């Protein structure tokens, strides 16, 4: 398996899965994709139906990472996808059986002739779907670093979900340290406690006196200091990381098997979307041959992606145009993984991708409406919709009253938009991306009650916290990192 850049530089060079694992963007600013998508045969699909999550992950990943010995990869996936790690299921009676499924499918009911269900992706350590990929990344990083005798210092900025998923994935891992910047006193008490209560010596929480954008600017400034970056082996784990995307392909297969009896059936997926990482994995599953009818892209008020899929116009937003919503993990001004899909949409023409994403930088966007390429969006099965705060409050209330199920704000956006695209006889699977406890304020508004809290999180906010407060100053952050990486 060889990887290429969406912008075409280095064509003819060989990049294996391990080569691109620890890096971010390709040299030319493009994103890595496999030179060809592996196809799944009918026989394989039939055989995979019976596999455990870990073994399914092994089968899928091994098609993308043939440079890792099979026995190593199998050990890695079995260590990652365990019932102990994905144990925070909400049904106590069936907890053992559900946790063993890793991503259990919960059927809600039949609406407009379509079976509507939730694929639970948020039963991992931080109660959000990012654990699905990040836990694997933690083990892959440790494995690869050990093999090459290297170390890595991950520097990141977070407003909540990504940072905690990264910390829980990397805690205690050999050769890895995490320096996570978060805005001081700006996260919810629950999210703050999730991160700051970690006592592992390789995890450093830095509370920056500023807002999330200040944290992000500091990470950019440090990453642009190439000498510092090289000396202190600074890396990232952002959503463009290819291994994160490919790890997410697995649950599309698992969800498909859970919702169908045979491989002649088709299903649709509705995906709460921000940076387009999650739904990009759905696109790849479809390109591999999974019988997917529709991929429903659901956005919140930050509707960059919905606008594109309705009109063919991709227009990134300015900071001042980006709303702070009650589904904050989808509050994006541009979708950092979108370029991967555009590459496929344009028939894998790197020169055109390069031009379009230059236009994004210089003119703030591009317009494919008039070109024949936009028509192909339908062939790829994509449809979209957007949701507002009022919509998500309604959806949370409705699902609770009708199906006795509490959903979080992001999942509510997915469900709202899913309902606009139901087709009789085609199961609609909504990806559940977080548990309600993480976004309690809106649950209280919608339901006038407290969100459900998995037993293991009782008293979380009262645990001792370990963090350092620093001013919003890149030099101070560099000094902090340098002082703690002296080996
Ligand atoms: C990150 C996140 C999303 C958005 O996923 P993308 O891969 O960025 O599209 C949606 N919901 C939750 C809860 C998240 O944490």
Description:
This protein has 487 residues and is an alpha/beta fold. Helix content is 42%, strand content 16%. It is built from 20 helices and 15 strands. The chain has helices at 17-21, 42-48, 53-64, 70-80, 95-101, 130-148, 161-170, 189-196, 212-224, 226-231, 242-259, 277-287, 304-311, 338-345, 350-363, 376-379, 389-403, 409-418, 440-447, 474-483, and strands at 3-5, 32-34, 105-111, 114-120, 152-157, 176-183, 203-209, 234-235, 267-272, 292-299, 313-315, 365-367, 382-386, 428-432, 468-471. A six-stranded mixed beta sheet has the order 3-4-14-9-10-13, with helices on both faces. Strands 8-5-6-7-15 form a five-stranded parallel beta sheet, sandwiched between helices. Strands 1-2 form a two-stranded antiparallel ribbon. α8 links the parallel β6 and β7 (203-209). α3 (53-64) crosses α11, α9 crosses α20 (474-483) and α17 (389-403) crosses α18 (409-418). Residues 128, 130, 161, 239, 272-278, 329-330, 410, 433-434 line the site of pyridoxal-5'-phosphate.
């Amino acid at each position: 398996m060889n990887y290429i850049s969406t912008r075409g530089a280095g064509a003819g060079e060989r990049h294996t899965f391990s080569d691109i694992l620890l890096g971010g963007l390709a040299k030319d600013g493009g994103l890595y994709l496999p030179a060809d998508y592996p196809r799944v045969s009918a026989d394989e699909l039939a055989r995979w139906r019976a596999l455990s999550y870990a073994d399914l992950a092994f089968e899928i990943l091994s098609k993308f990472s043939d440079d890792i010995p099979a026995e190593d990869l199998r050990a890695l996936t079995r260590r990652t996808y365990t019932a102990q790690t994905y144990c925070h299921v909400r049904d106590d009676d069936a907890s053992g059986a559900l946790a063993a499924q890793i991503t259990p499918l919960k059927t809600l009911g039949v609406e407009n002739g379509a079976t509507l269900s939730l694929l639970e992706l948020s039963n991992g350590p931080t109660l959000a779907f990012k654990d699905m990929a990040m836990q694997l990344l933690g083990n892959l990083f440790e494995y690869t670093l050990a093999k090459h005798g290297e170390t890595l210092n991950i520097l990141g900025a977070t407003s909540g979900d990504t940072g905690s998923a990264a910390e829980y994935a990397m805690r205690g891992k050999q050769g890895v340290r995490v320096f996570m910047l978060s805005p001081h006193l700006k996260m919810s008490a629950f999210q703050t406690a999730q991160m700051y209560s970690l006592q592992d010596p390789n995890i450093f929480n830095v509370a920056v006196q500023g807002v999330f954008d200040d944290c992000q600017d500091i990470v950019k400034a440090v990453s642009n200091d190439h000498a510092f970056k090289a000396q202190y082996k600074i890396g990232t784990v952002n959503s463009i990381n290819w291994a994160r995307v490919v790890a997410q392909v697995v649950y599309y297969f698992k969800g498909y098997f859970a919702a169908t009896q045979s491989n002649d059936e088709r299903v649709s997926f509705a995906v709460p979307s921000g940076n387009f990482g999650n739904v990009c994995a759905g696109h790849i599953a479809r390109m591999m041959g999974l019988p997917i009818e529709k991929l429903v892209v659901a956005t919140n008020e930050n509707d960059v992606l919905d606008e594109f899929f309705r009109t063919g116009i991709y227009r990134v937003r300015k900071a001042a145009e980006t709303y702070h919503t009650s589904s904050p993990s989808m509050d994006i001004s541009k979708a950092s993984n979108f370029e991967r899909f555009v590459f496929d949409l344009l028939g894998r023409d790197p020169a055109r991708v390069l031009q379009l994403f230059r236009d994004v930088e210089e003119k703030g966007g591009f317009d494919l409406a008039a070109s024949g390429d936009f028509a192909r969006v339908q062939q790829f099965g994509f449809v979209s919709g957007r949701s507002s705060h009022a919509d998500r409050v309604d959806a949370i209330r409705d699902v609770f009253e009708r199906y006795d199920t509490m959903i979080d704000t992001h999942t509510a956006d997915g469900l709202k938009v899913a309902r606009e695209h139901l087709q009789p006889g085609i199961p609609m699977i909504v990806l559940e991306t977080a548990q309600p406890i993480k976004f309690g304020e809106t649950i209280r508004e919608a339901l006038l009650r407290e969100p459900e809290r998995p037993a293991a999180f009782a008293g979380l906010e009262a645990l001792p916290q370990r963090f350092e407060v620093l001013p919003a100053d890149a030099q101070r952050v560099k000094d902090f990192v340098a002082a703690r990486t002296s080996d």
